[in-house]
Amino acid sequence: MKLDALILAGGESRRMGGGEKGLLPLAGRPMICHLIERLRGRVGHVWIGCRSEQRGYRDLADGILEDAGDSTGPLSGISRALGALDCSHLLIMPCDTPLVSPVSLDRMIALAQAHPDSLVVVQDGDYLQTLHLIVPVAKAASLEAFRETGRRAVRGWLEAEGISSAGATVRRSS
């Protein structure tokens, strides 16, 4: 399995008054840097998905994947990455989760290795963490077909793939 990571940082941060959410300081460093540090050594490359005007993320990771003009939320960035990167699987995290547990990352990766054709999604109790997932690049066509219906919600795509928050043990689809 050739695993890369995509940190989603393209949001407009409206609930936080705008600005660059991932660049907010935490323990003297930008929040996103803590996440990048946790991902290093677990993935081949760390990429940041953001809008073209978000200049502060440059040089923090292995590269930037700018949102295309038709960006309509996280699925746009995920789709773009699945088509652009040279990996077999993509670990996706939002930029505002700097303290994600290394144990959780390792468990996600182990599950993806054990089930390489399946999506791996974190479930926290009864809540599905829809932006903490590992996606096989082979799911790119499924994602594009879902986006062509005009739907934009990550949860909707995951449900179309057979993943729901109906049971605490649901973590992947076949």
Tell me what the structure shows:
The protein has a single domain, classed as Spore Coat Polysaccharide Biosynthesis Protein SpsA, Chain A, CATH 3.90.550. Helices cover 28% and strands 23% of the residues. It has helices at residues 31-39, 74-84, 102-114, 140-148, 154-160, and strands at residues 3-8, 25-26, 29-30, 46-50, 63-66, 89-94, 120-124, 127-136. The strands form two sheets. It has a six-stranded mixed β-sheet with strand order 5-4-1-6-8-7, sandwiched between helices. Helix 2 (74-84) packs antiparallel against helix 4 (140-148). It is globular and about 40 Å long. Mean pLDDT is 87; it is low at 166-174.
Number of domains: 1
Measured distance between first and last alpha carbons: 17 Å
Low-confidence stretches: 166-174
Secondary structure: helix percent: 25-40%
Main sheet specs: 6 strands, mixed
CA gyration radius, whole angstroms: 15 Å
The secondary-structure element order is: EEEHEEHEHEEHH
CATH topology (level 3) name = Spore Coat Polysaccharide Biosynthesis Protein SpsA, Chain A
Question: Which structural class best describes the helix and strand composition?
Answer: alpha/beta
How would you sum up the global shape? globular
Give average pLDDT, whole number. Answer: 87
Strand neighbour order, sheet with most strands: 5-4-1-6-8-7
Number of strands: 8
CATH architecture identity: Alpha-Beta Complex
CATH superfamily: Spore Coat Polysaccharide Biosynthesis Protein SpsA, Chain A
CATH class: Alpha Beta
- How large is the share of residues in beta strands? 15-25%
